[in-house]
Amino acid sequence: MLGTLSCENLTLQVAGRILCPAITFAIEPGQLWAVLGSNGSGKTTLVHTLAGLQHHANGAVRLDGAALASRTSRQRAREIGVLLQQEDGEFWGSVLEYVLLGRFAHARSWFGWRREDEDRAFAALQAVELTALAARRLVTLSGGERQRARIAQLLAQAPRIFLLDEPLQHLDLKHQARTLALFRDLACRDARAVAMVLHDALWPGRFCTHALLIHDDGNALGGPGPEVLTRGNLERLYGCRLEELAYEEGRYFVPNV
Amino acid sequence: MSRSTLLSILLIAAAGSILIGMMVGSYPVSPLQVFDSIVAPVPGAVHDVIWQLRAPRVLAAFACGGLLAFAGALLQVLLRNALADPYILGVSSGASLGALLALTLGAGVLTMNGAALAGALAAIVVVFGLGFRGGDWNVYRLLLTGVVLATGLSALVSLLLVMAPQAQIKGMLFWLMGDLAYAGSPAAAWAVLGAVLVFGIAQATRLDLLALGQTKASALGVDVTPLQAGVFFAAALSTVAAVMLGGAIGFVGLMAPHAIRMLGVAEHRLLLPLAVLLGGGFLTFADTAARALWAPQQLPVGVLTALIGVPAMLFLLGRTR
Predict the structure, then answer these.
(1) Where are the domains of chain A?
(2) For B79, which residue in chain A has the nearest alpha carbon?
(3) Quick one: which of A72, A99, A84 has its CA closest to B214?
(4) pLDDT per residue over B163-187, tens digit each?
(5) pLDDT tens digit string along A92-125?
(6) Which CATH number fits domain B59-319: 3.40.1550.10, 3.30.70.1520, 1.10.3470.10, 3.40.50.720?
(7) For A5-255, CATH number?
(8) Residues B124, B236: contact at Cβ < 8 Å?
(9) Residues of A in contact with B213 (CB under 8 A)
(10) Which of A241, A256, B134, B300, by CA, is between 20 and 30 Å from B105?
């Protein structure tokens, strides 16, 4: 199916340490994957590797069956969008200018953005409820507002595959729910493929169709949400006791402290 | 302030600085005479003053200031460091060392310029070679390589200065303080300025993205390493062209891009040309003041750029939220 990102026997390495030996899985259109794991288990490295931003891995990452590395950065950015966990650069301009930069991979002109780019940027700002702040300088925004601006930039990029590294960081509860609903709609309604690193054992059960658990010992377990997100699996993943909550038809887990 | 207003003000100020530079001096010329000698040149004293004395100097000052501002803007993005200026990668120290070595060995002006050029290019090659070594390079290594090399070269320059005979010291100071009194023909500098500006505007959106960080730029579709190499060489070439005209003139390259950002323009498509106009106009104005204020004695323009620029920047800083 077009818009499928897959990896085969992918082994990640950071500073000489091997994380996740030989993961094989595929993110297909319509699927919303939760990537769970404890701190330092290699979630961010996996996101960067799947996005083609890092090349210290053995094994293959394929986009629609072809090696990801065979595409130019621009072609890749039209297909795969990444929400990074941190951005280390500075941006001196307005929120709208920032969101417009997401259109780079689609831009055709030397002389500014086209109408379509601006329309998409405004639509993206509307989707994250930042329209009123469009003219403000990005640096004057709060942490949560800035996170929404980054999500808006990703929406403006309009890729077929979304890789999100902690999309809920800095967001208040309302915006956490809206953000998850937004990406669920992108997956289920618009047939995009979405994978997100989460640190919460409640949201995945409600929103995600699939889950990938990355254990500290490097073993990974991936599959449909209901099969993977069991109490036993999550307790082993986080190394702590969990309580089960039943709500509507789902089962959810919170730490037992 | 709207962008078109800002652009108009800077265009008028730049043109004004050139006009004033043509008029002011020991032989005063009226604006009308400047205009006449451009539109309908008549051979004579006025014509000679304008075309043989003032125009080369004024155009050299403008190109020099524009190149420094451009190089500063690029390096601030490349090194992701607000304190980056055109000399941070050792280009001017290399040029100074080359020129001073040639001077010590008793070379003429032409050889000295050649030696300065060789010194600057050698510094660029060394910094690039060490900074970009291997596939996985980072901007901190590039920055530190440049700073370390510049420090070493400056030490050698100081050594030469201490050992040089008294008679040569004044000529040597030209390279160290920045002075346009000995500037040659500005034609080459203008050609470089035109070329790098076209490069900069063509890469403007990529530069906006690079400012967000390497990983982010790559995620949004930029081929980062070739862009960084291109930016490095464009900045280095601009600095060499400016240093060959006026030595190491401080302040312009560091502050002109910041001044434009403080006025609310951050996109490089507009930031680069505006910074060039501001840097060029500012240096032209400062150079005119340097030769007129204490005539017939000429002040080093590097001193004046700081004296005029510091209050202006402090005012802007106070105004910015």
Answers:
(1) 5-255
(2) A89
(3) A84
(4) 888 877 877 776 777 888 877 889 9
(5) 889 999 999 999 999 877 677 899 999 999 999 9
(6) 1.10.3470.10
(7) 3.40.50.300
(8) yes
(9) 87-89
(10) B300
